[in-house]
């Protein structure tokens, strides 16, 4: 583990991208303290009003402060995306590593289940799960988690297979080390870099998926501000107030690109073929 930590520390572009991601995400996660107005407060007389001192980005179709809704929407979108990515990584990594270490019939049945589940498009499975859990940000997040851990399980399982028969694992077993300790002290440090890369690259995909479901009316419900749902609200006013559509769309695009760049750089830095 120390080798890839040294690589991360020494790479200046990676540190810069990491700082930008933390700054961008942290800004919106602190939205409740930065919003100039109540994002849910309606002013019918200010519907689609132009920017002013009190409302720097103007008002939406119901007269609500658009800047405050953008900030609150970012807080919701990014918080739930982080929650989804962390949950699927923890669940998938745990199940994948456990199956690889246990082996036998359990591993065989688990991998056949993964083969069948991964043969179905992720969005199709997600829509089915949304129909089961119902609409709303929380239930949509649970639906995405229930179908997204599969990739993490397959990745962690594949990595563990490369170490399962290695010398240091065999010596630990002969020395009487239990499976739990082997998993946490010998296998996890080798799996973690792969999972971190996958998590970073997966963040943009999960943000897009959450926004898409909200755009379709299956995610956030009115009056909850969320970038995908704000796209749905703003598309009807593209000619009169294009900012209502352009601003949330740009913020989604910006964060997806930023996290994808970080993920690609992480993959380059943690490439085992690269020297320190």
Structure overview:
- The chain is mainly α.
- The chain has a single domain, classed as MetI-like fold (Orthogonal Bundle), CATH 1.10.3720.10.
- The protein is built from eleven helices and no strands.
- The protein has helices spanning 2-10, 12-29, 31-34, 66-102, 104-118, 122-133, 137-164, 167-174, 179-215, 227-234, 243-269.
- Helix 4 runs parallel beside helix 7 (137-164), helix 5 packs across helix 7 and helix 9 runs parallel beside helix 10.
- It is elongated, with a radius of gyration of 22 Å.
- It starts with a helix and ends in a 7-residue tail after the last helix.
- The mean pLDDT is 84.
Which secondary structure elements does this structure contain, and how are they paired or packed?
Blueprint: H1 2-10, H2 12-29, H3 31-34, H4 66-102, H5 104-118, H6 122-133, H7 137-164, H8 167-174, H9 179-215, H10 227-234, H11 243-269
């Amino acid at each position: 583990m120390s080798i890839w930590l040294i690589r991360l520390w020494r790479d200046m572009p990676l540190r810069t991208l990491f700082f930008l991601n933390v700054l961008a995400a942290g800004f919106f996660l602190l939205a409740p303290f930065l919003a100039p107005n109540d994002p849910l407060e309606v002013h019918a007389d200010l519907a689609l009003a132009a920017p002013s001192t009190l409302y720097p980005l103007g008002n939406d179709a119901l007269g609500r402060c658009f800047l405050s809704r953008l900030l609150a929407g970012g807080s919701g979108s990014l918080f739930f995306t982080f929650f989804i990515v962390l949950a699927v990584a923890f669940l998938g990594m745990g199940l994948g590593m456990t199956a690889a270490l246990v082996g036998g019939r359990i591993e065989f049945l688990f991998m056949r289940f993964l083969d069948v589940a991964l043969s179905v498009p992720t969005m199709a499975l997600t829509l089915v799960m949304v129909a089961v859990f119902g609409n709303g940000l929380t239930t949509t997040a649970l639906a995405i988690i229930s179908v997204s851990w599969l990739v993490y399980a397959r990745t962690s399982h594949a990595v563990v297979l490369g170490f399962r028969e290695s010398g240091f694992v065999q010596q630990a077993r002969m020395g009487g080390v239990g499976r739990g300790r082997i998993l946490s002290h010998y296998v996890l440090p080798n799996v973690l870099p792969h999972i971190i890369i996958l998590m970073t690259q997966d963040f943009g995909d999960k943000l897009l998926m959450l926004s898409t479901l909200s755009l379709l009316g299956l995610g956030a419900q009115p009056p909850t501000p969320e970038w995908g749902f704000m796209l749905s609200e703003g598309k009807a006013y593209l000619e009169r107030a294009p900012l209502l559509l352009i601003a949330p769309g740009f913020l989604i695009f910006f964060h997806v690109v930023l996290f994808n760049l970080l993920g690609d750089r992480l993959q380059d830095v943690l490439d085992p073929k690269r020297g320190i």
